[in-house]
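dumping this here so i dont lose it
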């Protein structure tokens, strides 16, 4: 590897366990600074370019607000608004943006595309979600679990539903942090073998099952996400059928009396989760959403220092 190459964040295991801990500590410090109204303009005058091929509420607003709070600026680049959506190759977009901005965040469909962005960029590239991974979500999730559980040691998380991008990054992040994870998906919807392999290499292979009750029983945290991710809309009928029985509802929570409930949002009430669970007192979904801001501010300032 070339020492002059920038550091990228395409997957949660692009950082070591120690680096993860220091990013989370920095996030906690930023959260405190913001709550206390203390100045923390560590990215004064810096600019983040944000490419979006898919819609977003949390990722877009947390990155843009985060840059403002750090004294910098963010530029929203919807695919159709820039030449990328009109035939300019990603590698040209990447090299051009690198001449203007200090870091690039990308939300793209194919994971290969975030890798192309990173390969051609001379500034750090951050993955803001691909079809395969959502590592910024995992950073916020780990911060949230650390706050609510007081640490990671002995914490058990049950992932219920689709072995999707959010599940995959969380599985590797859980291994990195030392969280005990069980993943319950319908057959055929599990995490990819190579993701399982990466978790194993970090010493934390998840337990895989097709039984949501088995996974949820006595868990400290129950985590779910949509059954139909962005780009899978054509699979709606098949998926709605295949995911029957995997809803996070009051009956499932009865098996885990102390569990908090996480969801990366947006939630589709009545599908993967019920309205009463999202609104209930065990739900920590908006703490998770808030922590996107603090975690990403920490990530950006860490990457850019
Ligand atoms: N959780 C998350 O990434 O949400 P958005 O799609 O709103 O960014
Ligand atoms: N799995 C979802 C996450 C959205 C933040 C999707 O990819 O659409």
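and the seq i came up w/
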């Amino acid at each position: 590897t070339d020492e002059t190459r920038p550091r990228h964040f395409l997957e949660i295991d692009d950082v070591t366990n120690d680096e993860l801990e220091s990013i989370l500590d920095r996030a906690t410090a930023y959260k405190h600074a913001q709550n206390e109204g203390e100045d923390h303009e560590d990215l004064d005058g810096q600019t983040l370019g944000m490419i979006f091929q898919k819609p977003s509420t949390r990722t877009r607003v947390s990155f843009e607000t985060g840059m403002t709070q750090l004294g910098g600026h963010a530029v929203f680049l919807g695919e159709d608004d820039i030449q990328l959506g009109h035939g300019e190759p990603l590698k040209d977009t990447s090299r051009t943006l690198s001449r203007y901005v200090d870091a690039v965040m990308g939300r793209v469909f194919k994971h290969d595309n975030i890798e192309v962005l990173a390969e051609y960029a001379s500034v750090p590239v951050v993955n803001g979600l691909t079809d395969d991974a959502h590592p910024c979500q995992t950073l916020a999730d780990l911060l949230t679990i650390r706050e609510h559980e007081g640490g990671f040691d002995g914490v058990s998380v049950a992932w219920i539903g689709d072995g999707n991008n959010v599940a995959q990054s969380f599985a590797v992040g859980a291994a990195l942090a030392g969280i005990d994870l069980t993943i319950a998906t319908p057959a055929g919807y599990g995490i990819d073998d190579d993701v399982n392999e990466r978790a194993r290499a970090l010493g934390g292979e998840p337990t895989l099952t097709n039984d949501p009750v088995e996974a949820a029983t006595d868990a400290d945290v129950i985590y779910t996400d949509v059954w139909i991710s962005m780009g899978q809309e054509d699979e709606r009928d098949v998926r709605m059928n295949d995911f029957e029985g995997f809803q996070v509802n009051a009956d499932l929570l009865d098996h885990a009396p102390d569990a908090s409930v996480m969801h990366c949002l947006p939630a589709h009430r009545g599908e993967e989760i019920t309205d009463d669970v999202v609104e209930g007192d065990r739900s920590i979904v908006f703490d998770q959403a808030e922590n996107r801001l603090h975690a990403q501010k920490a990530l950006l300032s860490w990457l850019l220092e």
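The pocket of phosphoric acid mono(formamide)ester (ligand 1) is lined by residues 56-59, 129, 137, 264-266 (CB under 6 Å).
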